[in-house]
Amino acid sequence: MAILLKFFVAGLVRYWLIHLDYWQTIANRVEIATPLNSWKRLVEGVYLYDRNINPYDGDSFHESPIMLVFFHYLMKKVPYLLPLIFTVLDLLTAYLLYKTSKSFIRIFKESQEKHVSETADESKSMLLNDTQLDAASEYVLSVYLFNPYSVLNCAGMTTTVVQNLLVATSLWGASNGQRMLACVFVALATHQALYPVLLIVPIAILLADVNKGCNKCSYIRTLLVFVLCWGFLIYISAFIMDGSYQYVYNTYGFILTVPDLKPNIGLFWYFFTEMFEHFRLLFVCAFQINALALYVVPLTLRFKKEPVLLATVLIALSTIFRSYPCIGDVGFYLALLPMWKHLFTFMQQKFIVGCAFIITSALGPTVWHLWIYSGSANANFFFGVTLSFATAQIFLITDLLFAYIKREFTLKHGSSRQVDGKPAKLVLR
Amino acid sequence: MTCLLLKFMVIITTVSNVLGDDFKEEIFIKPLPPTHLYSYFQFVTLVNSEKSFAHSHLSPRSLGEIISRFQVDELHLTLTEGQWRHKQWGYPVIDAAPGAELYAWFSQEVTDIDDQWRKLSATLSGLFCASLNFIDNFNTVTPQMALWPTGPVKGNTNVTSLLRYASLPREIVCTENLTPWKKLLPCESSRGFSALLNSRMIHNTNYHSIGVHVRNVCASKDCTETLLEIKQTVALVYDYKIINSYDWSFRKLFGQGLPGACPLSSASTIYVDITSNDTQPFKLTPPPDRIVLSQRGGSDTKLAVYDIKADGQMVNIGVKQDTKEKLQLTVPPPLHFNRYVLGYGKEFGGIVTDLVNNYWTAIDVVLLENAPWWLPIQLSSLRINGEAESKLVKSMFYSPGRSRQKPYHLELLIKLPPRSTTTITIDFEFVFLKWQEYPPDANHGFYIGSALISANLPTAKNYTSIPINGITYDSVINASKPWYPAVFRTNGAMVSLPTPDFSMPYNVICLACTVVALAFGPLHNICTKELVLKPVGTPVSLTQKLLNLFKRKKD
């Protein structure tokens, strides 16, 4: 009952925000709408497509052709239902995350029972009981439904709403061992925004864990299904655009080469505004590798026992380092964090990170207004805010990982911090 | 001495007849009551269409070579400072966009037109000392409806694909452009009408535009052969306030009298529009050789004509106003327009074009909006009189722009209802450029080029252009046609793009990389190291700490 009420209230808030007079302002906010996901560009793309002008001819549209056809159909047939559709899609995302966290708790319990023998006696009390675990999924749901980031993202009617739904579905599919579902949706998400390609790693591990049996066969099967799905989507998209692969330059090419330097909450815009032309390619490659490839292998090797944590961290890192991030992405991975509620006690920078989130969220729009409308600040102000926002997110993620290994250590060796009766401290070696 | 000179001239004339080159110079002066005066110079050279230009006689060889080298069929180049005010001044003989404007039709044999176009603009840039070398694909459009060649075209040619159009609204026109322009004339600036073009005086005007227009014209009625017409024009608009008097004369306008015609010209004629004499009486001195009444498209024009001879006699044509107190009501032309930028802040804006049709019938116009790539317009925001789907639009062409590659190009064929104002609005978004893409003085703002308006006017009211098949100015006399084609340029506009801090590149690179390193460091630690308990020793004294610094690390 309480869950239904939450859904009802959250849906109402979203629906009300879309119908507000300030809707245009929300939909145009630089923190919410990027060139990649903004509602305005979607409308423009559909408008051009409707008039038989190839939207990929110019620079105004960067969604995949599948999204183009989908929204073209919606805007032609049921334009009045669009606010409702967006609200429902976002609520569905919340529901799927809720279900995912339920499944995750099931997996977590199983692994906890399996490893109970390795746990130190004095740490037995730290093992989680059912009530503690069940509360986590409630928190996941609440955070996604009422986090201002996700609420505003939905109110801005960005395509990140769809993106979040696709990722949530694939996570849910993976945690329930449904390979086809997980792969199709992660392929759809990848086709839309490229960065979710990272998720195939945790999903493959998760599927192998849940489905038991031959691990390697499972990995290969998952990878194969994903590649086939993705390839099929690329082909279908070209088929929609009359066999032309021109759209690839406007979707993947646009994400990878960062030609539009409109400010957003990420690190790319000012960095590549101020970049020396000579080094642009080098740094574009460096930053994209950082976002796409750098952390996958080491983190996978380190956390292969915890695929859900791996997924959370990879989603978060790709959000921080992607070329056109928006607060919708941030809201999504923040909703996954309550699954790790039990780690919060081991985190050291909760307060700093919390303060930084609040302060930057308030300061960002302020300095943006000062720069763009009042002309009394300059780009550096906004850059400073986005920089601290990124730093806060990085602290949050690294702190979470440290907390995880600290808990792991404590479970194994007990909570006493003593070596041979002498006081000792935890250090990395 | 005079005898010898005459003989010499006779020889020149015969030679010119043999080669078929023909040079004519003309001035058309029209008062634009109450406060301005329009003077239009045109120097026409007709060249027998031998495309090689190995020998050139009266035609400028430098320009001829460019035309033949790049296989240009028709070329229009104007360099303009100031803004023609169509509403107050009526229509000029040839309209021009503020800054530099270049458009050309290439010959059908050209395979890579874009490449040829870049080469042409770069070469012309050298010839006229103008920054035409900034013309590239990212500011070039191919107008689909707005521009048509003025010369004869072979029946089955797709002329649109051979056309390229670019304008550089930021270009500043000055003496350095006028001097090479004058050098193309057979008499340069020593004799003839071009002697009046004294840069000290003409850059002192409200509006000045120099142009070169090259096209083919029919040599005979059946048009089996063509001649190449090279027309050099200058349009000047003087403000009576600047010349300090309502009485004008050549000496006041140009700083000197006219030292006779160019000896190489076959005709040197001055036309003064004295239609306004009826309402605002003035007296011409010296009296004209003849007065011609032209009835064209429902408007009567009286032209005073002077035939100038190359006798070296100083001519100083002037006007003395009878009364100055009379108030004059200017009748706006049948079609006029205004363009401005909407919005505040540096995030979103809009361009508005108002088109006013004063006439009692509908007028079909083609509006060409040519937004640079850094001003992305959104077609979905196009509103005509506030409506998204307007019945006034008969046809539309849109080619979306791409950053750093091609501009946004919108063409609308609109039927303007009689006696109406049509407002066309389109939204744009401000673009954030790379720091090195900003021009010097980035906060000065960015110029948006003029929109092109191409119309077939049903009336010749305020219309002064030469008919399409005419060469010299006398072809306007009694040249009534069913409609009068005209291409106008609206006023340009300016936007101020948001700028980064230009002094920051190193800092930004360092700071952003630091944040990336903030993630890399801990993640590297987490992935490669393991947690261990390490005994905490007793607190060390300061001396011990200092000693430890020099000790080699054991573990």
TrEMBL record, chain A:
<feature type="transmembrane region" description="Helical">
    <location>
        <begin position="179"/>
        <end position="207"/>
    </location>
</feature>
<feature type="transmembrane region" description="Helical">
    <location>
        <begin position="80"/>
        <end position="98"/>
    </location>
</feature>
<feature type="transmembrane region" description="Helical">
    <location>
        <begin position="351"/>
        <end position="373"/>
    </location>
</feature>
<dbReference type="InterPro" id="IPR009600">
    <property type="entry name" value="PIG-U"/>
</dbReference>
<feature type="transmembrane region" description="Helical">
    <location>
        <begin position="252"/>
        <end position="272"/>
    </location>
</feature>
<keyword id="KW-0472">Membrane</keyword>
<feature type="transmembrane region" description="Helical">
    <location>
        <begin position="219"/>
        <end position="240"/>
    </location>
</feature>
<keyword id="KW-0812">Transmembrane</keyword>
<keyword id="KW-0337">GPI-anchor biosynthesis</keyword>
<keyword id="KW-0256">Endoplasmic reticulum</keyword>
<keyword id="KW-1133">Transmembrane helix</keyword>
<comment type="similarity">
    <text>Belongs to the PIGU family.</text>
</comment>
<feature type="transmembrane region" description="Helical">
    <location>
        <begin position="309"/>
        <end position="339"/>
    </location>
</feature>
<feature type="transmembrane region" description="Helical">
    <location>
        <begin position="151"/>
        <end position="173"/>
    </location>
</feature>
<protein>
    <recommendedName>
        <fullName>Phosphatidylinositol glycan anchor biosynthesis class U protein</fullName>
    </recommendedName>
</protein>
<feature type="transmembrane region" description="Helical">
    <location>
        <begin position="279"/>
        <end position="297"/>
    </location>
</feature>
<comment type="pathway">
    <text>Glycolipid biosynthesis; glycosylphosphatidylinositol-anchor biosynthesis.</text>
</comment>
<feature type="transmembrane region" description="Helical">
    <location>
        <begin position="379"/>
        <end position="405"/>
    </location>
</feature>
<dbReference type="Pfam" id="PF06728">
    <property type="entry name" value="PIG-U"/>
</dbReference>
From TrEMBL, chain B:
<protein>
    <recommendedName>
        <fullName>GPI transamidase component PIG-T</fullName>
    </recommendedName>
</protein>
<keyword id="KW-0732">Signal</keyword>
<feature type="signal peptide">
    <location>
        <begin position="1"/>
        <end position="20"/>
    </location>
</feature>
<dbReference type="InterPro" id="IPR007245">
    <property type="entry name" value="PIG-T"/>
</dbReference>
<dbReference type="Pfam" id="PF04113">
    <property type="entry name" value="Gpi16"/>
</dbReference>
